[in-house]
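Much of the work behind modern protein science is quiet bookkeeping, done one molecule at a time. The protein below has been through that process, and both of its lines are reproduced in full.


***
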Amino acid sequence: NVGTTNTPAAFTVNTLRLNTNTASLTLAASSANAITTGGILVTSAVTLPVTIGGGVGTSLAPGAGKEMVLFNYGTGTSTLTLNTVLADNSGSSVVFSGSANATFVIGGLAAYTGGTFINGTKVFLSAGGRIGTGNLTFNNGGTFDLKGQSQTIGTLSSSGTTSITSSVAGGNLTIGNGSSGATPFSGTMNI
């Protein structure tokens, strides 16, 4: 439960909840942090941007073979910025889910090799930011903005109205990192 600015030592928790406008989390330098069975929740009490970040060598990882689920149900200008490595743990995947107004900004490299799921929300890369190299799946639409970054993924699948864009020149999305499989689509995809 993060209610104010916190800088804890390396930690292992089930779920990390950000529930006030002053909530932010600075990860201790060179710390490997784990969210073993749950994820990160930004509650509806949050109306301003919040950041989880740290220095060189910091990371967040899910439990072995588990998904890390990131929920952003903040209101107003609620943006969850992740300025840390999203680490791999036995093929783990990351799920971004939240309200239609919620935004996620990925400012750290993603070392996870499992899939990325965008569930009806917006995910932006910032300088140096990456999602994992596994499959990218949109459920109930969503937006993925490369913001000038290059990204390689496995397959791409979508349902609902989906937008893949680069609001900054130079963004490239490469589909097919050596994986095989169908790329099913339903709904509308805007590229």
The longest strand covers residues 67-72. The CA atoms of residues 15 and 58 lie 18 Å apart.
